Amino acid sequence: MADPIRVFLLDDHEIVRHGLRGLLESESDIVVVGESGRAADAPDQIIDLGPDVAVLDARLPDGSGIEVCREVRSARPEIKVVILTSYDDDEALFTAIMAGASGYVLKQIRGNDLVDAVRRVAEGQSLLDPAVTLQVLERIRTGPVTDPLARLTPTERRILHLIGDGLTNRQIAEEIDLAEKTVKNYVSHLLNKLGLERRTQAAVLATKNRRA
After folding, report:
1. Distances (CA, A) of 48 to 42, 72, 171, 205
2. Which pLDDT belongs to residue 77?
């Protein structure tokens, strides 16, 4: 009998991790060898454990699964990575591919399909659409987008504008009729896209863009 596929899980929600562990370990050919709820702790754990596949949440309170992917793949390129996300986002997909991910799947994926994804990635297959890969190669060939705001979705642009007006997450949530937690996630994502670390930097950028 072949050795089981060894999997590591990264997600900040304990219930989600337990659900994923139960789903994967219900299969006779998969074993979960480790898990973490923090991006800061995950790279060292994954590198030390050397799983076949790491399933990483794209966004965590203390960092990004994509950054974890980049660090792990740099140290241990034989470890395959699947990015698991709640957001269908072309820019994040591009970043994940550049970081070396073999797969990028939405959390709405059915359980059986996720199990299949882990198996396929472990075998060396890619879950990425060939058309998407071609787009990535084209972006590499033509170079980066010169306007950083071109990376943002319309909602992210509007939130950036409101940050420039000095609104808090709660005020922004009321303004555009979203949950405050959703706004917080949007803010974190747009900061990541723009290569910024702090909200004040985003406010300055929004003000400069308004004057341009």
Report:
1. 10, 10, 44, 40
2. 92
